[in-house]
Amino acid sequence: MLEIRDLHVAYGEIPALKGISLSVATGEIVALLGNNGAGKTTTLKTLSGLLAPRSGEILLEGESVRGMPPHLIVRKGLAHVPEGRRVFNRLTVRENLEMGAYTRSDAAVSADLDRVLSLFPRLGERRAQVAGTLSGGEQQMLAIGRALMGSPRLLLLDEPSMGLAPVLVEQIFETVGSINRQGTTILLVGQNAALALDIAQRAYVLETGAVVLSGSAADLARNQDVRRAYLGEM
Amino acid sequence: MDFALLLEIFPQVLLDGVILGFMYALIALGYTMVYGVLEFINFAHSEIFVVGAFVGVEILLGLKNAGALDQLPPFLVLLLILVAGMAVSGLLAVVIERVAYRPLRGAPRLIPLISAIGVSFFLQDFVRLIESVWRNAFNLVYPGMEGLNRRLELTATVDVPVKALVVITASLLMLWALHLLVNRTKLGTAIRAVAEDQATASLMGINVNAMISLTFLIGGAMGGAAGVLFGVQYGLINPYTGFIPGLKAFTAAVLGGIGNIPGAMMGGLVLGLLEAFAASYLSLLTGGAFGAEYKDIFAFSVLILILIFRPRGLLGEVVRERA
Ligand SMILES: Nc1ncnc2c1ncn2[C@@H]1O[C@H](COP(=O)(O)OP(=O)(O)O)[C@@H](O)[C@H]1O
Ligand SMILES: [Mg+2]
Asked: Is B323 among the domain residues?
């Protein structure tokens, strides 16, 4: 589905990604872990075209999307739920969802709307409300729902649990699991490594712009270094 | 004070104010829509307005010289010059953005502003040059159209020129169409999404540059329509005519809350009404101490007062954002 080879990205002169390689197979949930500033967000932004890499290759279903503008990459079946949710505060919930389906005019849009509203019934209740007035958890649901409206084959999620109450975090992760079971491949950036490793099949660990560990989620969950660094154990 | 006279002229003053207000509202939309997506004041917008006025006058003079002006139904002629003025001004705005603003997108804020002022000067003198070569004159008068100049007498002191009704109707139709476009269509929603967050809008598959061009097209077309209506209503135009209405429309946009579309409409109307009432009533109410020439001072004093108490403008409000 997705393959990244030796990707280098810099902000001005300061390198943020120093040659990372990773892959995501169709149907998988892959977790991308790492401390603050490790380069997780930078990786997702480069994949969706918001940042241009210095060098390296990005293949989406075998086709290079490197250097393509974001609005064209979306049309290749990739959706990116950005860090901090970034819902359109001044648009209503319904309009936000419509924007998620911006590239589509097929008949399945309304079926996808039903699907999103059944995943997140709260959004249906608040359809006519301006998104800026939703709670943090509702905004996260809206951000994910909006991405699903594009009917993506690959979903990039950047810290969907950030700033949410623990109950909500679990609910969001459960939903991510069911989205995956319905056929969407997922690359999940997680702050909450325990939960991320719980639903992912494989994971990569980033440190200062490089992949330092990778493997099956089960192996990483048992790994002493990972437990110390990301699961809060001494 | 002559209360009877005050009351008597009230409908006429109201009408003048509404016409002026719609004119400001149409121009203000161009400022506010562009500000909404780029947070930038397009100082060349007053010249985009003037170009619309010149397109209108050129077509009318052309028809007149061909002897066709009085043969054609006036509403058809009016529709023709409106559409032509909107098309030329709209496309001009798109080209200006592409040539003079887009290359400066990443530059510090003052730079595109200076570029806009440069475009404004360029257009003024370009229109003057063209007209000087073509007609050997650059102060032009809209030829009167039979039928539009007829007056409908409502009462002894109030008569409504047909063209005033036309200007009001055309303005209302355009404001309504714009409202539908921006609030009821997918493209309009995309423009609002781009105005709020360009990066996230691009993640939805929205072509941000295309939406910015579309914004200039719409704002420019509204400005061009205002130019044509200005010519039809007031008659005399020259390449520098845009300065004062442009400044006032910009003020109207700020008054309504810059970036806010209903705000621009409302700000335009408020400013137009204030000005018309000041022009007619100041001298009556102050026993001649302040004449009509104080209308701008009065109108702008009220504006300053409003902005002191509502710094974000009448409709400009911050959307509450929760973490
Ligand atoms: N807009 C930016 N300008 C300059 N440096 C940035 C910018 N965004 C991120 N960085 C830097 O790039 C590195 C990676 O950041 P980021 O990808 O946001 O990390 P993460 O998402 O893993 O917390 C950090 O050192 C960060 O300071
Ligand atoms: Mg991050």
From this structure: no
Chain centroid to CA A147: 9
Among the atoms of ligand 1, which is closest to the Cα of residue A42?
17
Residue B12 lies in a domain: yes
Residue at B151 is within a domain:
no
Cβ-Cβ contacts under 8 Å, A98 against chain B: 186, 189
Give the angle subtended at the CA of B42 by the CAs of B38 and B174, to the nearest 5°.
Answer: 90
Atom 6 of ligand 1, residue of closest alpha carbon: A11
What are the pLDDT digits (tens) for A103-141?
Answer: 998 889 999 999 999 999 999 999 999 999 999 999 999
**Exposure of A12 in the CB half-sphere (CA atoms within 13 A):** 1
Q: Which residues of A16-48 are buried (b: 16+ CB within 10 A; e: fewer)?
A: bbbbbebebeeebbbbbbbeeebbbbbbbbbbb
Pairing of strands A63-64, B140-141: unpaired
Pairwise CA distance, residues B281 & B284, whole Å: 5
Chain B contact present for A88, CB below 8 A: yes
- How far apart (Å, rounded) are the C-alpha atoms in residues B309 and B311? 6
Q: Which one, of B74, B58, B28, lies nearest residue B226 by Cα?
A: B28
User: What CATH number is attached to the domain comprising B291?
Assistant: 1.10.3470
What does the DSSP 8-state code read for residue B142? P
CB B89 within 8 A of CB B52: yes
pTM of the predicted protein model: 0.92
Residue B266 belongs to some domain of the structure = yes
Residues B23, B252 contacting (CB under 8 angstroms): no
Q: Is residue A8 within 8 Å of A18, Cβ to Cβ?
A: yes
Q: What total of structural domains would you count in chain B? A: 1
Residue-range domains of chain A with CATH: 1-77+153-234 (3.40.50.300), 83-151 (no CATH)
State how far the Cα of B230 lies from the Cα of B241, in Å rounded to an integer: 10
User: Which positions ≥6 away from A209 have C-beta within 8 Å?
Assistant: A15, A16, A17, A18, A20, A38, A39, A42
* pLDDT, tens digit (0-9, with 9 covering 90-100), for B258-317: 988 889 999 999 999 999 999 888 888 888 788 888 888 888 888 888 889 888 888 876
Residue-range definition of the domain harbouring residue B271: 3-139+156-309
- Chain A residues whose beta carbon lies within 8 Å of the beta carbon of residue B201: 88, 99
